[in-house]
Amino acid sequence: MINLLSPQEKTVNLARKKLTLALIFEFSLFLFLACFLLATLAVRIYLIGEVNFRKIGISEREAEVDISKIVSFEKKIVDLNKRLEDIGGFYKVGLDFSEITDKIFQYLPSGSYLTDISFRRDATGLKLALNGFIPTREKLLEFKKSLEQEEAFKKITFPASNWVSATNISFYLGIDI
Prior knowledge:
Blueprint: H1 7-64, H2 67-93, H3 97-107, E1 113-122, E2 125-136, H4 137-149, E3 155-157, E4 167-176
Antiparallel strand pairs: 1-2, 2-4, 3-4
């Protein structure tokens, strides 16, 4: 095929082709940008929906949590902290509980036993309370005298109710350390 067009028409034709290619390129770029913008908008809408969904879930869970349970739990924590402070104070004094109980058991007559031991701290010092069983009044008197001779015990309290029975005595004893 022979091209019979004049050089001017060839340049006009070439300019039209270039313009057409530029328009196609610009349209493709515009179409790409529009699609990118729409995709970004879709992702943003999806993320906003997810965030709102999570917020609703969190607010529902917060509504389920009972405030009274939290308050009671905080009270338990405060109580446990106070107990730990008391235990720490007990250990700061440096009393050896096993040493004290060894002294008590050393003087405890045969056939006798302790049913309860408790410690309490007050302004004057440490108080020890003992409950137990002794078979006879004579052994109870012997136990009392032995404890009174011990230097580690400041004050020993035997209530009158300990002396009522002659045998099978359930006794109470208070000791200041």
